[in-house]
Specification:
93 residues; mainly alpha; 2 helices; 0% strand
């Protein structure tokens, strides 16, 4: 599917991206993307270290079940509906 892309196609796509985002915002977007990738890699490494024990074997990370009695008078958790913000960009003539 992407085998037919040539250098000219990639230049056209790059031009469209520059037109959409502007040349001043592209470095900030690239920096944010790089930081996000680094954070993702660090979190993946920390998860791997949590799963492995000190001797290199994989530990059981499942949450143990308890036989404690359930809480009787606990209120149910209610998630609020998403709020809709009014459109303040309306220009009047």
């Amino acid at each position: 599917m992407l085998g037919n892309l040539t250098g000219l196609h990639l230049l056209i796509i790059l031009g469209i991206v520059v037109l959409l985002f502007g040349a001043t915002k592209l470095p900030a977007l690239a920096k944010g993307l790089g930081q996000s990738i680094n954070i993702f890699k660090k979190e993946m490494d920390s998860d791997d270290k949590k799963a492995k024990g000190s001797d290199g074997t994989v530990q059981n990370t499942a949450v143990p079940t308890t036989t404690a009695e359930p809480v009787v008078n606990q209120a149910p958790v209610v998630n609020p509906a998403p709020s809709v913000q009014p459109n303040t960009d309306v220009h009047t003539k």
